[in-house]
Amino acid sequence: MAGFWGKRKREQEAVQAAQDADLARRAEQALVAADERIRTANDELAFAEAELGVSMTKDLKAALDSVRTHLREAFQLHQLNHDEIPDTDEELRTRNARIVQLCDWAEDLLDEKTAALAQSISRVRQAPQIIAKVRADAEALAARIPQTRSAIERLSTRYSDSAMQQISASAGEAEQLISFATHGADVSERRRAARQNEEANLALETATEATRRAGALMDAVEDFEIEALRAESTLAEVVADSRGDIVAARNAPNVTAVATAVSNLERALEALSPAGARNDPFAELTQLRNANTALDDAIAKAHYRAQNPLPSVAQVQHSLDDADRQLGVARGLISGHRGWIGADARTRFAEAERLRIDIPEMIRPEETREQALAASRRVAQLAAEALQLAQRDIDSARPQQQGWGGDGWGGGRRGGGGDIMGGIMGGLVIGSILDGIFD
Predict the structure, then answer these.
(1) For the segment 351-406, what is each residue's pLDDT rounded down to a tens digit?
(2) Alpha-carbon distance 262 to 298, whole Å?
(3) Helices and strands, number each (H, E), in the chain
(4) Which residues, including other chains, have CB under 8 Å from residue 406's CB and lie 6 or more apart?
(5) Which of 189, 196, 303, 402 lies 20 to 30 A from 424 at CA?
(6) How far apart are the C-alpha atoms of 337 and 334, rounded to whole Å?
(7) What is the per-residue DSSP string for 236-283?
(8) 117: which residues sit within 8 A by CB, 6+ positions away?
(9) DSSP H helices in 341-416
């Protein structure tokens, strides 16, 4: 048996030695690769600074400085592995693992930062093509300016100034942006010729953005006409629907909210621009739709209220009074036996008290009166549950004592706590029944 365990141990030691040797080899290879990656990244930084400028390459420079700092630790650990002081296998294993970790981190960081600059460098190297595209786009957009002006003038004869406000200045703004884009392209070329690459890149980016915005402004004019026609079509449908809703409202419950909503909808219909007049279809559609929706909501609430009468203030107050009585009983029992009451009873009692705080403010407003009634009933329920759980805890913690009726002392009944709680619980049940009578 001893020979078996000795062989097993030698096999494990051989496996561990092979793993340690592989880790040491990986650490040396990682150090060489990381050192070479630093040299490559340094060259890339020099090229990037020449093409992009210092400000756009500061992240890569900071990453290089950080990598150099942390790789000093890796080289120091490698040096410790090969000095004249003997090391344990565990020390060598820990150092090599740290070396691999540091080198992997360094390469990942440099790859991330250089990749972030790759797109910018590519764009800089393609600057002549980009400048040519900016000028071509600017020329094409300039050709659209007369058409855009004509569309704005035509639309202004049909729609009001409030509707046209969002596009009335689009042609002028687009013309200014086109001029700015052309100027930016010229500035970019001059700065690049003067080897001021950072300023050249900034001018080129702003020129490209200016052409994009100019195109978006002119597209918005065409989109406006389409959306205005769609709004007019929808407005006609909402007008027809609103008139039908006003007729249908005559069969709704006769309440103030419905009458007010009908009046508001009628005024919104009367406020619509007459046929042939310059109008704002977007604003008119919004106003009419809001009034129509308000009438629908008022009718739905009136029908619901007719089927579910609102409880009176007295009913809610009676329910709250009953909840307060049950809270008072539970509070007295819990306060008198604090050391015996468990978490369940305390939790339900605390929740009941928390709900009780907001109920008085909810009783008068009609919008929250039903919620107040439901909350007061919930308070009563939680208080009753807390009372039951508290009594259970008390019964569990109280020692079993003899009463006055038997076994020499009057029988096997415990003290009068059970009778007291029976009376209390009976009172709560009676209170709940009375509460139901008043609801």
Answers:
(1) 999 999 999 999 999 889 989 999 999 999 999 999 999 999 888 887 654 444 44
(2) 9
(3) 13, 0
(4) 412, 413
(5) 402
(6) 5
(7) HHHHHHHHHHHHHGGGS---HHHHHHHHHHHHHHHTSPPTTS-B-HHH
(8) 44, 48, 52, 56, 57, 60
(9) 343-363, 366-397
